[in-house]
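PROTEIN DESIGN WORKSHEET
SECTION A - STRUCTURE
LENGTH: 445
TOKENS:
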């Protein structure tokens, strides 16, 4: 399978046109955002048509006053549509025609296909027959408004430690978070990335929902940042690279994460990052309007109640790099409304210790203009990878875990929990007997 993207000549102001011979073979093409998937790349090509500019009798496409850059900054789905499959593919080899083979990462295409296949399979999934009695509960790792996270050991697998996220059904309903919770389960069940937490299984009883996820014993980045006051230039850059790869993976699946912060980044025993807590994650094809996230990390378009997309995550990367280096967010203010004003006005400053390249990349992420925000421009994450800040970074080596982390947390054993804060232990309320009053509400969990 091949991805192709338009590479139409830019000198179209003279009303130049391209004529292609029509071949009816539509089943070989799948539309996907501004790309087309070609299932038989050696045999066929596709063409877009500009709405209202198609001469049906000759299949001639006119491009008048055509500006490729402006066109693809808007929604390509509204500008173009698929016409048919056309002649053999000299276009893909760059010889003739209006299309070229893009520099798209084959890995990203494979990841997307795997995600879509798993998502479709969820509808046929058999509910997991598990309950809390299958685990030895060892201690609490964290608490929140919905429930808590528990360190546990699977009784069936010796020395197998997991983290169990317990969510109370009644609280989810009260706070109107049912859709978010189902989204979280669906996303976690289908994703697979070295820098994203893995879901082992999930189940429910009459009172609670349970996510059984891999246990990352290095603890939260927030804990290490607090202990060290701030991270070095090298450590911050390494962690930023892994976070960027995680977001690139999620965005390729149309997932906007919306809750990047040190508390939601775990560090494993080898010093690698895992993005966790997908409660705000959502598949977004174009824009969404929900106000959610952590105040210090909100992008201005969220605060201004504008529709937003994946660009909010790139803004958050700028905030994260700054916080890793300083120990606090760039717009922090004890008064939340004043903080929002600073975010919208872009009011922040750099300590004198910051290097020029890190100032540059942070400023690139913290750009109000979405068409100029790093990661959100025409070349996407290529602009990030090519930035001078990452001049010595090999992202392929980072992705394949071939680069040793400059920061290794102290971990005594697989079940060590010393990197997590201690919480007062409370009895766990659970029930797998009788009638479930929430059965219909959570039938898709």
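SECTION B - SEQUENCE
RESIDUE ASSIGNMENT:
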């Amino acid at each position: 399978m091949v991805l192709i993207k338009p590479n139409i000549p830019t000198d179209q102001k003279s009303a130049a046109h391209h004529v292609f011979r029509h071949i009816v073979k539509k089943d070989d093409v799948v539309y996907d955002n501004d790309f087309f998937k070609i299932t038989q790349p050696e045999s066929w090509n596709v063409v877009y048509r500009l709405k209202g500019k198609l001469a049906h009798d000759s299949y001639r496409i006119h491009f008048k006053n055509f500006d490729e850059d402006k066109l693809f900054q808007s929604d390509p789905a509204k500008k173009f549509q698929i016409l048919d499959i056309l002649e053999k593919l000299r276009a893909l080899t760059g010889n003739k025609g209006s299309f070229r083979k893009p520099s798209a990462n084959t890995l990203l295409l494979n990841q997307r296909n795997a995600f879509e296949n798993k998502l479709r399979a969820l509808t046929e999934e058999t509910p997991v027959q598990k309950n809390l009695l299958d685990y030895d509960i060892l201690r609490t790792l964290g608490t929140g408004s919905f429930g808590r996270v528990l360190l546990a050991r699977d009784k069936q697998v010796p020395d197998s430690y997991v983290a169990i996220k317990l969510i109370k059904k009644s609280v989810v309903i009260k706070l109107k978070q049912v859709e978010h919770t189902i989204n979280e389960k669906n996303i976690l069940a289908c994703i697979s990335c070295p820098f994203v937490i893995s879901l082992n299984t999930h189940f429910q009883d009459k009172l609670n929902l349970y996510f059984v996820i891999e246990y990352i014993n290095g603890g939260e980045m927030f804990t290490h940042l607090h202990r060290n006051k701030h991270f070095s230039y090298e450590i911050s850059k390494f962690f930023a690279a892994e976070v960027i790869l995680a977001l690139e993976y999620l965005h390729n699946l149309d997932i906007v994460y919306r809750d990047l912060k040190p508390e939601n980044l775990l560090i494993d025993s080898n010093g690698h990052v895992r993005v966790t807590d997908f409660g705000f994650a959502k598949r977004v094809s174009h824009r969404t309007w929900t106000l959610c996230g952590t105040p210090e990390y909100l992008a201005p378009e969220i605060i201004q109640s504008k529709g937003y997309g994946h660009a909010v995550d790139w803004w958050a990367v700028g905030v994260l790099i700054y916080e890793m280096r300083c120990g606090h967010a760039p717009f922090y203010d004890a008064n939340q409304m004043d903080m929002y004003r600073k975010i919208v006005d872009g009011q922040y400053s750099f300590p004198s210790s910051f290097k020029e390249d890190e100032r540059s990349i942070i400023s690139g992420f913290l750009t109000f203009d979405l068409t100029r925000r790093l990661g959100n421009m025409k070349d996407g994450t290529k602009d990030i990878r090519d930035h001078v800040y990452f001049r010595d970074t090999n992202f392929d080596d980072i992705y394949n875990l071939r680069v040793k982390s400059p920061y290794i947390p102290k971990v005594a054993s697989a079940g060590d929990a010393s990197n997590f804060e201690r919480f007062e232990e409370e009895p766990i309320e659970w029930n797998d007997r009788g009638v479930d009053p929430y059965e219909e509400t959570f039938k898709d969990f």
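SECTION C - NOTES
Confidence is low (pLDDT under 50) at residues 1-104.
The chain has three domains: 2-104, 106-217+414-445, 221-399.
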